[in-house]
Amino acid sequence: MNNGGYTANVPQQNMGGAGYSANVPPQVMSGAPISPTGKVMPAPQFEQSYIENILRLNLGKPATFYMTYENNSQWNAKIFSGVIEAAGRDHIIISERQTGRRIILLMVNLDYVVFDEPLTYQYPGVIGNPSQGGR
């Protein structure tokens, strides 16, 4: 078989007794860089900056949560205030100071969060706190 003078450096695999050779690219994780020689390089591992991670860094702090509920005839938007108890990928648990009630809020309804004190926040992949630019 004429392959245009190209010879692949692929080990022979035994496929039922017959020799089998193919141009098989290396298996690569999506987004992993490959060197010019074809070696798969490990991708840097940075935690991404998700809302739940920011909320987890600020457990125990009071905050105000602005929520929107589509197609709700009683209330379309609602504001919740409380201390952050926990945060997951799809939910936030707060406790109301006045009543002690625990409320589970769904992330899908979250518009934004307001804190009345400085946040604890570490941007992924950055060592130390980024400069505040004179603020």
Automatic annotation (TrEMBL):
Keywords tagged on the record:
Capsid protein, Virion
Among Pfam families, the record links this protein to:
Spore_GerQ (PF09671)
Q: What is this protein called?
A: Spore coat protein GerQ
